[in-house]
Amino acid sequence: MRWRTILLQYCFLLITCLLTALEAVPIDIDKTKVQNIHPVESAKIEPPDTGLYYDEYLKQVIDVLETDKHFREKLQKADIEEIKSGRLSKELDLVSHHVRTKLDELKRQEVGRLRMLIKAKLDSLQDIGMDHQALLKQFDHLNHLNPDKFESTDLDMLIKAATSDLENYDKTRHEEFKKYEMMKEHERREYLKTLNEEKRKEEESKFEEMKKKHENHPKVNHPGSKDQLKEVWEETDGLDPNDFDPKTFFKLHDVNSDGFLDEQELEALFTKELEKVYDPKNEEDDMVEMEEERLRMREHVMNEVDTNKDRLVTLEEFLKATEKKEFLEPDSWESPSI
Question: What is the pTM (predicted TM-score) of this model?
Fold first, then answer.
């Protein structure tokens, strides 16, 4: 369903460590945990982990809501603004008693989970006398004032929290990457300080040599350009480049056949370009930097093609992009050096 796609398919290919349960608890909530996504060859494609600390709760609420015929029909017809604005939440009053009972139970379980995590963290800090109810205020994906009933307020808060957190996800990843690069350079400089002058010159020379080697790679096609897509068409799809057809290309790479190219499906299109620059066997090629470059490519294409900014590319948006001058005559694309 489009609702499920909008809220749950925001996970990206990134070499990131999973957070432990306690690390996902406020006051210092880190909502950036990511798991590598592997294609699932089955009729039903399971939604990936969003990286949110309330990911399981979000999925369970969606699953339960989709069992209600009335709500399911509303979800199918709703646009992104109806979902994000909270107007859809009012439809909760019309769902069946059975569904409401299940949602109440899910909320009680989630509140219980949060209380357990708060207690575990406080115990680890040897902090006593804290009001758990007050600490629950830090969680903005549910109404803590009513821990037993799932109401329209809860659905509204869940949607708004997930939308906001996921929209800030790329920014968080960029910030984490900057920290990674700064730490890598810091460690290199600290290592140089431990060497005598001769060894230090050798290391600096080696570093410059690796940098030049990394920069010496075949031309990288501009992401989303005709040349880039035709290369995928020929080398990945095994088709004649002279027969390139944007509509057929879209359908080939809409892996789950939902009518959209989501962020994962877009990122998969850049693998051939990235392989020109990065090789895991080469000492000078950093795979963390490769995934940051994949993200940069996907963001660029989304900014150019995704006109309604719902983080999904429709066939109509895709075909319109292929009519632009930038598609046929793009600017050069420079990959960052080490």
Answer: 0.63
